[in-house]
């Protein structure tokens, strides 16, 4: 059934996050030949509209207001509800990001709709649109179809490939007026952690360190390899608890959930709570001194050895490939 699908674009530091383009691709599948409408919310976002169109949106609507400069649940839901009222979509797709996870249930409740969260793939099968999502901390997957009402999903970053960018694509860009009022949260200042390099939740390559890294300085060889591969550094909770690195790097059940193309786990034992955040990575390499370490059970490639020897050797070899 052809349907109109709204796709929320996520803006950070004046640019669209990659998950926005992945959501457009999911929206295209969900529209089943209907229309994909990008939605941009912020204080000055219309300049980004064409990029959503280049990645496959048929047109874009924007809601601009200086009160929308920073994300607040009230402000964004008022803006989005104004768009939903004017567009009357049959589908909604957001990224399963911190913003999407906060906003989507709120909108679903307002619309009295269901919500399929954390979708890792979406395809047409047997006349149905089938949404796949991990359950039990990634140990199993469930498949869902929507039989009635709004088709509303959040998609996990790094799982659904964006469509090829086509700069010759054109489409309408229009603004929707929304009254943004009675905000219960006012963001006075955003204090950023001094993070280096690539965003962990969108990284294609992650070099993660555990308690085996032994110190803050022990992360240096991991950082070098990550920077060479244009990747990000992550960590187990063991490393965070030991104060070797910041908690913003923690991957796992109570940290970030990541699905990079390549995950290199260095000195991480592979506790179930860590696996919950990374076991769906496409290729997993584990480096551990203990051949019995649990991490080897999920690894595609295992290296039994001292990470302080193995990681610099890998860096040397990757450097040769880059020459
Ligand atoms: P360890 O288990 O101590 O493993 C260190 C590993 O390093 C060992 O396997 C050792 O053989 C290896 N090693 C040591 N030296 C070297 C060397 N030189 N070279 C190579 N290998 C070496 N954990 C998470 O990671 N993320 C979570 O989100 C999370 N959430 C949790 C939630 C709850 C409710 C609970 C109870 C726990 C949670 N944990 C989480 C903690 C989890 O149970 C483990 O304690 C933690 O993951 C262990 O971290 P680690 O693997 O770095 O440390």
Automatic annotation (TrEMBL):
- Report the SMART domains cross-referenced here: ETF (SM00893)
Q: Name any cofactors this protein relies on.
A: FAD
Taxonomically, which superkingdom?
Bacteria
Using the record's annotation, list all stretches that form the Electron transfer flavoprotein alpha/beta-subunit N-terminal domain: 5-195
Q: Which Pfam families did the record assign?
A: ETF, ETF_alpha
- The keyword Aminoacyl-tRNA synthetase appears for this protein: no
Instruction: Extract the InterPro entries matched here.
Output: DHS-like_NAD/FAD-binding_dom, ETF_a/b_N, ETF_a/FixB, ETF_alpha_N, ETF_asu_C, ETF_asu_C_CS, Rossmann-like_a/b/a_fold
User: Cofactor: bound how, per the entry note?
Assistant: Binds 1 FAD per dimer.
Q: What is this protein called?
A: Electron transfer flavoprotein subunit alpha
Species of origin reads: Sporosarcina globispora (Bacillus globisporus)
């Amino acid at each position: 059934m052809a349907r109109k699908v709204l796709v929320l674009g996520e803006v950070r530091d004046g640019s669209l996050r990659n998950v926005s383009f992945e959501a457009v691709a999911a929206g295209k599948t969900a529209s089943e030949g209907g229309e994909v409408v990008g939605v941009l919310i912020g204080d000055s976002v219309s300049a980004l509209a064409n990029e959503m169109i280049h990645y496959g949106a048929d047109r874009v609507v924007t809601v601009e207001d200086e009160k929308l400069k920073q994300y607040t649940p009230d402000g964004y839901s008022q803006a989005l509800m104004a768009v939903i009222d004017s567009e009357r979509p049959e589908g909604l797709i957001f990224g399963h990001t911190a913003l999407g996870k906060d906003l989507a249930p709120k909108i679903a409740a307002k619309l009295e709709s269901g919500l399929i969260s954390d979708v890792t793939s979406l395809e047409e099968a047997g006349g149905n649109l089938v949404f796949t999502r991990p359950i039990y901390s990634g140990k199993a997957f469930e498949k869902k179809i929507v039989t009635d009402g709004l088709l509303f999903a959040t998609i996990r970053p790094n799982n659904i490939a964006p469509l090829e960018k086509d700069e010759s694509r054109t489409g309408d860009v229009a603004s929707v007026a929304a009254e943004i009022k009675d905000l219960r949260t006012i963001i006075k200042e955003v204090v950023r952690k001094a993070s280096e390099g690539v965003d962990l939740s969108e990284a294609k390559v992650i070099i993660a360190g555990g308690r085996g890294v032994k110190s803050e300085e022990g992360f240096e060889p991991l950082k070098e390899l990550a920077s060479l591969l244009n990747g990000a550094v992550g960590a187990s909770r063991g490393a965070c608890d030991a104060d070797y690195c910041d908690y913003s790097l923690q991957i796992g059940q109570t940290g970030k959930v990541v699905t990079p193309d390549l995950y290199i786990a260095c000195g991480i034992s592979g506790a179930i709570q860590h696996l919950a955040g990374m076991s769906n990575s496409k290729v997993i390499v584990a480096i551990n001194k203990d051949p019995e370490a649990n991490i080897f059970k999920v690894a595609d490639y295992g290296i039994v050895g001292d990470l302080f020897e193995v990681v610099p050797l890998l860096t040397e070899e990757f450097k040769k490939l880059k020459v």
